[in-house]
Amino acid sequence: MILLDGKKVSKEIIADLKERRKKINDNVKLAIIWVGNNPASEIYINNKKKQCAKINVLCDVYHLEEDTKENEVLELIDKLNNDNTVTGILVQSPLPNGIDEIKCFNKIDSKKDIDGFSNISVGNLYLGSPKLVSCTPKGVVRLLEYYGIDLEGKNVCLINRSNIVGKPLFHLLISKNATVTMCHSKTRNLKDITKNADIIISAVGKPNFLTVDMVKDGAIIVDVGISRVDGKVLGDVDFNNVSEKASYITPVPGGVGPMTIAMILENILIAKEDNNG
Q1: Residues 27-43: what's their mean pLDDT?
Q2: Where are the domains of the chain?
Q3: Which of 63, 188, 220, 259 could anchor a disulfide with 6, C-beta 3.0 to 4.6 Å?
Q4: Which of 15, 11, 37, 1 is nearest to 245 (CA)?
Q5: Rounded to an integer, what distance in angstroms lies between the CA atom of residue 221 and that of residue 200?
Q6: Which residue pairs, CB below 8 angstroms and at least 24 apart, start in 271-277?
Q7: Is residue 275 pLDDT above 90, yes or no?
Q8: Which CATH architecture has domain 24-112?
């Protein structure tokens, strides 16, 4: 069994990005909009700031109160869209009730849409000409490629259909000529599908959801799920047992998570390079 070490791979990517950043003779700035006081969001934002600093990218956080109105968030996005010093914009999820995430994502100028969530970014991906691609799906594919895993012709079971992970990842995988079955909470006989999959990608958010009896010998396992149980961070996969059957497997933490951050940084530089022509 080979560990798909996202921590190691992301460090190499970030080191390359640091050199790439040196060739840009201008400030690069990420603007993060955070509404409310979700403690998990605070952790994620602090990590993004820390990683941005590693490659000399400025990071401004616009922290708004829990009772902020939707139109105030949209006005702030508009202001940042028109600010030439801002390279990219992220709206930190989740947003409080009463604020439409999709509306906020679509308000972001597609050239600054670092998360790749806007209709324009998604449309570019689906039509095969992606610019800024959702960071977690992009990170999953890059991790597999780093370890020399050829996706062409592979049967992939993708357990997630969200706009953030499942749908963009589906399109990235089929663009690599994989055969993808997208599963979800209404899928019947899931085990029959996973047992025939060369690659299983799970992003369910339930600890030990994927058990050893659901996996064939030599399968490649990518665990995107994150849960917190008794202070521990756990993935979807029963790692100890499934790893005995798998040929490759990601750990949690240290697998897909670091790759997501690396892809955020890469998208910021892509946005800047495109803006500079």
Answers
A1: 93
A2: 24-112, 135-257
A3: 259
A4: 1
A5: 5
A6: 271/87, 271/88, 271/111, 271/112, 271/114, 271/132, 272/24, 272/26, 272/28, 272/87, 272/88, 273/24, 274/111, 274/131, 275/87, 275/111, 276/24, 276/26
A7: no
A8: 3-Layer(aba) Sandwich (3.40)
Can you name the CATH fold of 135-257?
Rossmann fold (3.40.50)
Cα 23 to its chain centre, rounded Å, is 26
Q: Which residue has the tokens 């806007």?
A: 118
- Rounded distance, CA 101 to CA 229, Å? 27
In this structure, the strands spanning 220-223 and 199-202 are: parallel
CA-CA-CA-CA torsion for 69, 70, 72, 77, nearest 10 degrees?
150
Q: Give 96's pLDDT tier (boundaries 50, 70, 90).
A: very high
pLDDT of amino acid 277: 63
Contacts of 123 (CB under 8 A, 6+ apart): none
pTM over 0.90: yes
119-148: per-residue pLDDT in tens? Answer: 999 999 999 888 899 999 999 999 999 999
- The owner of tokens 């050829």 is 150
The token pair at 229 is: 């149980």
Q: Is 247 helix (H, G, I), strand (E, B) or coil?
A: coil
Catalytic residue (choose from 92, 113, 138, 167): 92
Query: Which H, E and C letters describe 253-266, residue by residue?
Result: CCCHHHHHHHHHHH
Tokens describing residue 204: 């369910």
Active-site annotation holds for 115: yes
Residue 92 known to be catalytic = yes
Alpha carbon separation from 232 to 117, 226, 253 (Å, rounded):
29, 10, 10
Catalytic residue among 29, 48, 112, 272: 48
Annotated active-site residue in 29, 51, 113, 115: 115
192 is catalytic: no
